[in-house]
Amino acid sequence: MPQQNYKNHLKFYAPHHFIFLPIMSFLAGLGVYKYFTNKEQQLLWALFSVLSFSILYLAIMLRQHYALGNQNRIVRLEFYLRYFQMSGEKYDEILNKLSFGQIAALRFASDNEFLALAKKAIEEDTKPDEIKKAIIVWKADRMRV
User: Fold this and answer.
1) Do 1 and 134 form a contact (C-beta atoms < 8 A)?
2) Cβ distance 79 to 103 under 8 Å?
3) pLDDT score for 37
4) Among 18, 28, 40, 135, which has the minimal tally of Cβ within 10 Å of its Cβ?
5) The pLDDT of residue 145
6) By the 8 A CB rule, do 77 and 49 touch?
7) Please, are residues 45 and 31 in contact by the beta-carbon 8 Å criterion?
8) Is 127 left (phi over 0), alpha (psi -120 to 50) or beta?
9) Residues with Cβ < 8 Å from 100, sequence gap 6 or more?
10) pLDDT per position in the chain (145 positions), as tens?
11) Residue 20 to residues 11, 24, 138: CA-CA distances in angstroms?
12) How far is CA 126 from the centre of its chain?
């Protein structure tokens, strides 16, 4: 397995991202095209388009909503545990100082970099993308949704 880093940390689910979504996008586009070109069955194509867009929208939103909500909770809990283990301090002090994006970016930092990057994020309000770019030794997270 290749070492994870900033350039390769995105994850795709092939059946969803490369098969289902493209097919549904094509069908929605086809419906709109046919709506404007097939005047005899315009109402049917309008219904087909609305149905295609609805299925596409629901597939994107529902798949992500539940999985990401749960994942975000776990990321926060892992951050708080790791912060406490490494600093010996309760996380109550930093709870309102870091955004979720910053917390999520810090999970990729190695143990040697974690506290320094967390402190920098608190003091300088570092953007999540900048935190990721500052990581020298990347700690892989291969269990994301």
Assistant:
1) no
2) yes
3) 97
4) 40
5) 66
6) no
7) yes
8) beta
9) 72, 75, 76
10) 678 888 888 878 788 889 999 999 999 999 999 999 999 999 999 999 999 999 999 988 887 787 888 889 999 999 999 999 999 888 777 778 999 999 999 999 999 999 999 999 999 999 999 999 999 999 988 877 6
11) 16, 6, 32
12) 19
Quick one: tokens of 56?
């596409």
Phi and psi for 122 in degrees, rounded to 5? Answer: -70, -45
The residue behind tokens 């300088």 is 124
Buried b (16+ CB within 10 A) or exposed e, 82-94: bbeeeeeeebeeb
**And the tokens for 37?**
């070109």
Determine phi and psi for 107, rounding to 5 degrees.
-65, -15
DSSP-derived secondary structure letter, 3: P
SS3 of 103, please? Answer: helix
Residue 105 near residue 118, CB atoms below 8 Å: no
